[in-house]
Amino acid sequence: QVQLVQSGGEMKRPGASVKVSCKASGYTFTNYGISWVRQAPGQGLEWVGWVNPYNGHTNYAREVQGRVTMTRDTSTNTAYMELGSLKSDDTAIYYCARDRDSGGWSPEAYWGQGTLVTVFS
Amino acid sequence: QSVLTQPPSASGTPGQRVTISCSGSTSNIGSKTVSWYQQFPGTTPRLLIYNDNQRPSGVPDRFSGSKSGTSASLAISGLQSEDEADYYCATWDGGLRVFGGGTKLTVL
Fold first, then answer.
1. Which of A37, B63, B77, B94 has the greatest number of CB atoms lying within 10 Å of its CB?
2. CB contact under 8 A, A44 and B2
3. Where do the H-state alpha helices sit in A1-121?
4. What is the pLDDT of residues B90-105, one digit of tens each?
5. B70: left (phi over 0), alpha (psi -120 to 50) or beta
6. Which residues of chain A have pLDDT under 50?
């Protein structure tokens, strides 16, 4: 069965960076894109970006463009999201989610358990 | 402020049919497929509808999606208490993924 297991919660100071991991299992990692979606406390879902594990191609939301880097390690079937120059507004649960279909960008069908990133001063 | 507009709240009584709207523009809903997600408090989102009106396996047929022009709708028939949750629409716009602001559904 498809599983996405994310790394544990993080507490960071403003200006710092955070790197969240998402380890995939139960399917061929390079066949399906991975999105990162965040949810601030009490707020809605916000798309952060998408990575194609096959070739590493990425798309990022304008709100985090220049601060975010999404990568993948095909040897360990793990996707990573690194967000720098953290601000208090970045405090949120960060989810990784796998595309429903292979061969292109499709809706998120399988979700990780979420990683709480707290930015505090 | 999302480019997709959803009502912040909706409500219905058990057995009723309710609809949740998602309004966009020609650059998103008008030209891309729409998906819908259900999220209970403290849990991860669940894909409910994709490609405007397709249900993943395991999603009851009480849930249906439709689209017309630059608006999409999620309909829930035979409303049940366990349907009380937050619902989000999503699509693509200019090569980026966008979510609606979400609708909190209350079952009275």
1. A37
2. yes
3. none
4. 999 998 999 999 999 9
5. alpha
6. none
